[in-house]
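Standup notes, protein team

Yesterday: finished cleaning the Timema poppense set.
Today: Glyoxylate reductase/hydroxypyruvate reductase structure.
Blockers: none.

Input for Glyoxylate reductase/hydroxypyruvate reductase:
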Amino acid sequence: MGKKKVLISHCEIPQPALDLLKEKYECIICPELPAPTRQQVLDRLPGVDAIFWWGKGSLDKEFLDKAGDNQWDIARPQWLLGQQLKDSVVGIVGLGGIGQAISKRLRAFEISKLLYTGHKPKPEATTYSAEFVSLDTLLRESDYVLIACPLNSETRSMFNEGAFSKMKPNSILVNISRGEFFMYDLNSFRDENEEEVVDQSALVKALETGQIFAAGLDVMYPEPLPPDHKLLSLNNCVIVPHLGSATLKTRTDMAMLTARNIIAGLEGTPLPAPL
């Protein structure tokens, strides 16, 4: 007897959990991140990483607090100085749909070089003058490292102490990929363990010791972080609460696309957005 055939139309289940489902069922899978969501992530991204690209390590604490308290100190002209995107080297980990769209938008910032890494070179990269390099090379040469890769067995804990030790002391890390991930038990569908792309203990150490300049996180683990988590107390770490797709229109578009996929699957008609 063959596997039971199921249609999975999802917005939030990560790929490893889907792989587990495939072991038990014959799966027809619809995408996790439809086009409307990709666009919203990109629309949100400048509002988040413009802060990181501004580059002042203490933006979220010292600077923003003093800005509202009339405590600007004009006698310290270098207080507000940080990094700049113009003439910098930007490295993108994961040149998928979001990575490519980010590459397109980076042109306006007049960066000096765009690097990317992944399984293999992508033909689309030539459109953005992006150079395929190893992860080690990307970490050593990039002023800005943007994580836009999926979470899987290969990327889990990719950014550990070893990775941070290779980055420039003036480098800024931006993570918009995956923070928290749950492996699902197929019978109970309860969380068994969590994995992550960034080793947060290693990130804390890198930020505290000045191994890297600053970090901006849209994703983390757990979500939300506990109030006493070290990342929340660091002046050179800016955290936003997983806002990549957080608009009414985008969430509505995601739900409608999911529903249309399910209806099409039940009716036996072509799926609007197959994976």
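Follow-up from PR in the comments: Residues 35-244 form a domain with the Rossmann fold fold (CATH 3.40.50.720).
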